[in-house]
Amino acid sequence: MPMLYVVLLLNCDNEPYEGDIMIEDNSCELAILATVNVAANFNTATAEDFNFLCQAYKVTLENQIDICGDANGLLQVIIDELGDCTVDDELCDEAIAATEVAQNNYISSTDINFITVCNAYKEALQYQIEVCGDDGILQSIVEELGTCSPVFVETVGTWKLVAWLTDISRDIDNDGVVTNNYLEEIDCYENETLIFNSDSTGTLFLRSIADITYTPIADSPNEEDFFVTCNIIDEEKLFTWEQDGSNTLIFTMADGTIVNYFRNANSLFIAVDNGFSATSTIDGTSIIAERVTYVYVKL
Known about the structure:
Layout lengths: L4 E3 L14 E3 L2 H16 L7 H19 L5 H9 L8 H17 L6 H19 L4 H9 L11 E14 L8 E3 L11 E4 L4 E16 L7 E21 L3 E6 L4 E6 L3 E14 L6 E12 L1
């Protein structure tokens, strides 16, 4: 049963309250925070306590699915990958998967849970470094996160696209390394920016577009070789914008289309259905399409 907080408002004179009872169902947020906390413990697992912490992690993931759902199947994939929680040589793969979940939670964090989610992301990165090694990239991310104190930046200014986050990890550049940040795999979209002006106008600059195809690998179900062609373009899309609270930006495009972007202290993001699309080289019609969260940071 979802957990409910019941808030009763009483005046200072203790007179009978005649208003409505306010009920806030925050059970999904609580389930996500529980997963973050247990995942942090699991990320520090040793050979001695791995099984216990792994089982606890699976239970919280299953609880999050029951309460929040799992539309894209990512949480169930993690549960399946954890298996029976026996210690094996796949700790690195599991650490990478945990980091990707922590990264997604960090990107979509709110001002309320930013510190908790940020620290969980740092711990996941540090554990991945411990079991997988590092060429310096992961440690640089840890250092950029700092003390996880939110640094709130103004909306006005220039923002740059830095990530395409998805719920499925793939090896799009065929280098043997899978990731759920497809922008790391695509040699394209390296200078896409948004400019917010102080007069509530703005411009979205589109400077490249990728044509992506794939060829299924024979005798390897659910595996493909991808091919990416980056085409240079020069498009500007004008919009007006207004900020609703601290976490929502409402765009009105030149054609009247309304688009909502979301932001936390220092990043701006929007989730787009079928943001990633690849066409089969075999029949020219089959398509792999995935929901993508585009992430921008301020320059």
